[in-house]
Amino acid sequence: MPKIKYIEQNGNSKTIEVDNGLTVMEGAIQNNVPGIDADCGGSMACATCHVYVEDSWLNKLPKAEDAEQDMIDMAYKPNKNSRLSCQIVVSDEIDGLTVTTPEKQT
Amino acid sequence: MIKTDVVIIGAGPVGLFSVHQLGIKGLKSEVIDNLDKAGGQCIELYPDKPIYDIPAVPECSGKSLTDNLLEQIKPFKPKIHLNERVQEIKEDKGLWILKTSNNKTFATPNIIIAGGVGSFEPRKLPLKELTKFEGKSVFYSVTDKTLFKNKKISIFGGGDSALDWALEFSKYSKVTLIHRRNEFRGAPHTLKELEKLKADGKITIKTPFQIDSINEGKEIKFIKIKNDDEKTEKIETDIILGFFGLIMQLGPIAEWGLNMNKKTIQVNTENFQTNKQGIYAVGDICSYPGKLKLILSGFHEAALASVECFKRARPNEKYRFQFTTSSKEIHDRLGVKK
Description:
- The structure holds two protein chains of two kinds.
- By secondary structure, chain A is of the alpha+beta class.
- Chain A has three helices and five strands, in the order E-E-H-E-H-H-E-E.
- Chain A is globular and about 30 Å long.
- By secondary structure, chain B is of the alpha/beta class.
């Protein structure tokens, strides 16, 4: 099962095995990873599952669609590594993906 | 004080359908919502996006779902109190007394919380120092345009609201539009107009930039913005406007002594009652084993909660289950003419 590493702003991290097909957001919610709210449940309508993807992974993920970028505009302190974790689908190709959660989501 | 059988908090799809389920049982209800229109997330977050999982409705939009629900509850002449948030509740002689942000009070044996993920509030700029200027020189919405005349205005955001106000204020103020990326999202004619104003030097556009800091002191004089490479620029500014859409905040509900599970309220799935007698939670805000955040689940939850509401509102009557197809009583309540 692919492993996803979630790092908090304070440096704490959790590495979790997430089933293929789930999203990085679902992996976090199901395993009580702090820092991801996912208020809208994954319908790309709230930007509260915002994460920063580690540089080395940024170009290995499918590019964010326009609608995702529009939502990231609303997120708390976005940067060029910003993605919505509900739009990153876990697969063997992204085994080892590392994301950092923002200071807060709202 | 308004007396009613049930107060429903939240005018989203599940709150609206609650009016129906209560109405066919002969119960009166009042709905309170913080937004300026009914529909909740459906109308605020995805009015035009399609929904495919409403039973017997192959496809509809957030807007059409809301319109149809409003049509369906019309016979009950629903009273929907908009732009109001329930601030506090307390118990008094077996009734719940609610007080809203507009100082309206309600007395009722039943409260159905259909609050989604909370009430919608504008998202703010991520700079703490700005809080003390809110309403004076920092704004997240525009109510009085005259405040924005002959000023140096820095507008943050890349969507329709940011663009529309940038165009409007550029007529009589010096506007800088700041956005975190180069692409703006707006109606084609708005984007065209923006290009023109930029070319004519009527609007300054700064991308990809975000706010970094403001000057110290009692008044805003300038702001600093920075890009992803930490390059900063200083912009003289009297007024800061931020348009980052709305965020849902649970707000006062968290302080009512209800058993919570993160941002959701734990309920008994027989009647969707919370740990407080006469307070129910339905829709996205409730949690129980196996909960799905689907509109259709919310409809079911509202139906069951309405039965318990009947028992508390009419303690001397016996509840009788009736079908809408065959009950003369329900037809009368719906105003069906035969």
